Amino acid sequence: MDTANQLVSAGTFQVLKLPLGFIRVLEWLFSIFAFATCGGYTGQLQVSVDCMEKASSNLSIGIDFGYPFRLHQVSFEAPMCEAMRRERVFLTGDYSSSAEFFVTIAVFAFLYSLTAAIIYIFFLNKYHENSRAPLIDFVVTVVFSFLWLVSSSAWAKALSDVKVATDPDEVQLLISACKDQTNKCGSLHGPRWSGLNTSVVFGFLNFVLWAGNIWFVFKETGWHKGASRFAAGASEKQGGTFSQQSYNQGSFDQSGSYNTQGNMGQPSEYSQVGGPTSYPSQM
């Protein structure tokens, strides 16, 4: 308990008010929403098969599916409308690669953002003293930004395909009895997509957060600090050169004024002395 109190007292929670720490907390929170809404999804659809022989009909066929959306492994029993016979029908499509890739990126982003936030709070001084730590943080942020964009785009495309594959109207086409016009097939209700739609939204929101955080992490690297010092030195050098030029110009003007006065004074003195001297000699 004492150790925990010491860590809390030593932590610089003020960094959470800065964009560097505040965005990390948002990344941590939004990554939870991303993998929870996708990885924890389960859906169900229901269709009905009304045979000519009413005894063979099944008016409520429930089909359950969920993450990781290997639909080709999801099966259900449907009546064949022939002497009480039944068949096992499988859905079509395997979209596990896109879904698992999206959830994996979300989980690793959750772990990294949590680790980075802890370092900012409790080890901020060491983070600034070590020049490699901000550089690694910058590279990882850029990589995660790219991965969020790729995984969210891939999952959005896979989700649209999952919606088509689990459409009750499309599932009816897989049932042999529904191909006979004498039998009547219908859809009772389809899956709810609000959770998966939210996962796609959180995926692109995470991309925006990580991409926007690139600038704030870059400001902590030596590249930005070196460029800032170079720009400051260049501006000071330019200011010193301008001041020196102004000083030289002022000195030139002052000396020029002095010379002008001296030149005007010499002929005046010469004429005053020489005039009276030459007049008696002529006499």
Automatic annotation (TrEMBL):
Residues 240-283 are annotated as: Disordered. The keyword Protease does not apply. The gene is SYNPR. Keywords: Glycoprotein, Membrane, Transmembrane, Transmembrane helix. Belongs to the synaptophysin/synaptobrevin family. It holds the Pfam family MARVEL. It is a multi-pass membrane protein. This is MARVEL domain-containing protein. It comes from Astatotilapia calliptera (Eastern happy). The chain crosses the membrane at residues 21-42, 101-123, 135-156, 200-218. InterPro entries: Marvel, Synaptophysin/porin. It is found in: Membrane. One of its GO terms (cellular component) is synaptic vesicle membrane. Residues 15-222 form the MARVEL domain. Signal peptide: none annotated. PROSITE patterns: MARVEL (PS51225). It comes from the Eukaryota.
